[in-house]
Write a structure and sequence with these properties.
Layout: H1 2-13, H2 15-25, H3 36-53, H4 64-71, H5 85-118, H6 122-141, H7 152-167, H8 169-172
Helix pairs in contact: 2-3, 3-4, 3-5, 5-6
C-alpha cells in the first residue's frame, strides 16, 4: 500500500510525461477506428489518464462524466459513461478506495467459500453457493452500458450479501 502511494507521489513529478506516454502508447489491439469497441477503448484510456492527472485520487463522485465531456484526450462520440464498473471505481474514487473495495470484495468471496466448505447447515451452504455465483458473474458482467452506482438493485444486492456474511459470522468461527 505504501509502495503504491510512493509510486504515485514520485509519478506526480512526472505527470505530464506520463500523460504524454499514455496518450501516445496506450493502445489495445482492436482494429476498428469506430464502433463500440473503439469508443470503450477510448473511454478506458481517458479514465486512466484522469487517474494519473489527479495523482491517483480520482476525479471524485459524479465528476468522471464531467471530465470525460470536458477533458477527454481520446474521442468518445459523446459517450460519457465508462462502461466498466472496475475502471469507474478506480478513476472516480482513486487507487486507495479501489484497493479497499477489492479487499472488501475478496473478503466477501472468501467468507462465502468458507461457508460452502465448512457449514453443516444445508441452507447456509445453498445460499452461499448462490451468492458466490452471483458475485462471480457480477465480476464479469459489470462491463455494463452505463454506470451501476445509481442502480438501487445493486446496493440492495450488496446489503443482502453483507447481512448474510454477518449472520453466518459465528458459524464460520
Amino acid at each position: 500500500m505504501v509502495l503504491i502511494l510512493m509510486i504515485f507521489a514520485v509519478s506526480s513529478v512526472f505527470i505530464s510525461d506520463i500523460v504524454e506516454y499514455l496518450t501516445n502508447n496506450l493502445t489495445f489491439d482492436f482494429s476498428a477506428e469506430t464502433g463500440s469497441i473503439y469508443i470503450r477503448e477510448n473511454l478506458y484510456k481517458n479514465a486512466l489518464i484522469f487517474l494519473f492527472e489527479t495523482f491517483g485520487f480520482g476525479t471524485g463522485t459524479g465528476n468522471l462524466e464531467y471530465w470525460m465531456m470536458n477533458y477527454s484526450t481520446f474521442q468518445t462520440d459523446s459517450v460519457l459513461a465508462v462502461h466498466n464498473w472496475w475502471i469507474e471505481i478506480l478513476s472516480t474514487y482513486g487507487v486507495l478506495t479501489f484497493l479497499l473495495y477489492v479487499i472488501f470484495y475478496y473478503k466477501l468471496v472468501k467468507d462465502l467459500i468458507i461457508n460452502i466448505v465448512k457449514s453443516k447447515n444445508e441452507v447456509i451452504t445453498s445460499i452461499s453457493i448462490g451468492l458466490l455465483c452471483i458475485m462471480s458473474s457480477f465480476t464479469i458482467n459489470s462491463l455494463s452500458s452505463s454506470t451501476l452506482i445509481s442502480s438501487e438493485w445493486m446496493w440492495v444486492f450488496w446489503a443482502i450479501i453483507i447481512s448474510f456474511q454477518g449472520l453466518t459470522y459465528e458459524e464460520r468461527r
